[in-house]
Amino acid sequence: MEVERQSLRARQLRARDLLRGDLEGKDLEEYVEERLLTTTLENVLNWGRSNAIFPMTFGLACCAIEQISLVTSRYDIARFGAEAFRATPRQADLLILSGRVSIKMAPVVRRVYDQMLEPRWVMAMGACSSSGGMFANYAVVQGADKFMPVDIHVPGCPPRPEAVLHGLNKLQRLIRGRPDLGWRQRYNAVGTEEWARFESGKPTQEALDRAAAAIRSVDEGEGENA
What we know:
CATH architecture of the largest domain: 3-Layer(aba) Sandwich
CATH topology of the largest domain: Rossmann fold
Helix content: 40-55%
Number of strands: 3
Distance between the termini: 37 Å
Radius of gyration: 23 Å
Structural class: mainly alpha
Shape: elongated
Number of helices: 9
Largest sheet: 3 strands, parallel
Number of domains: 2
Strand content: 5-15%
Order of helices and strands: HHHHEHEHEHHH
């Protein structure tokens, strides 16, 4: 504690000297270098977006109860700057699909998504919105990514609020331009997707760019460690 007090006192004295104009030469250069941060405008914007997410007040089924609990004091999504759930898609940039998506509901969900301003993101919360879950029938869409882009999938039936917060953290890293690798990249399983097996569906350019950015960030990290 005594060391911390001395360090704080030393910083206070240096700040006083700077204000008085007593710091000159090498001392002034070191003081500025210790407090100078260089970045790009895009990185600053993405950092701000990732820490000020506005989810849409929108629930589909039982997963919405877990979504509601995110704003309680036990889980406190406000720690990550995403507690302001908006009542209109024109003020929201995150759509959480919390529950199964029926065939009748799919056009409504898509309209809500289209009314959101760019940039916007989608989280498929739970097994039902991710893959249809237990409802393998004609009335339920077998995965929301069949009719709209999905950025994050959170497994579970229903997923606990902690899992949704983990998905939010992964979304924040994606927004900042350093997304986590998917399991296909981690386990060298690229080529097992439906579109890669010449079945229905094609990857969007956004998905391809995101995968390339994720691989690039890992390669850069390995290069720095080497």
